From TrEMBL:
InterPro entries documented for this protein: Uncharacterised_YqxA
Superkingdom of this protein's organism: Bacteria
Protein name as annotated: DUF3679 domain-containing protein
One Pfam family it belongs to: DUF3679
Length: 108
């Protein structure tokens, strides 16, 4: 059993290291394929921390708290109706009520 666990952990560690190495090789291949160093080639998500200021950008677009607040207000104004959410709520209420009645009938 100990030998099996040791082999399993060894294989898992080897696979993890292989994935990391593959990601690094893919990144290097992308840079070589372009053929030049592009300063506009940026990461998907960048976070700049300058003292008290924290700036984040996703795919080159700046994200601010004002954007998030306006999106939140827009979603609240839409009052979107989700059929599955309402069905789930009704189903959970029904199951809770049925189980409560079952417990009450058993306990009497």
């Amino acid at each position: 059993m100990k030998l099996f666990m040791l082999k399993s952990l060894g294989i898992a560690a080897l696979m993890f290291i292989s994935v990391l190495a593959g990601m690094q090789l893919a990144n290097d291949g992308i840079h070589r394929m372009k053929g030049y160093n592009d300063p506009n080639f940026q990461k998907a998500v960048t976070i700049n921390d300058k003292g008290n200021d924290l700036h984040a950008s996703v795919m080159g677009n700046q994200i601010t708290s004002h954007d998030i607040e306006t999106k939140k207000k827009k979603l609240e104004e839409m009052n979107a109706f989700n059929l599955f959410s309402s069905m789930g709520k009704k189903m959970s209420e029904g199951i809770s009520g049925a189980s409560k009645k079952l417990v009450e009938s058993i306990s009497k």
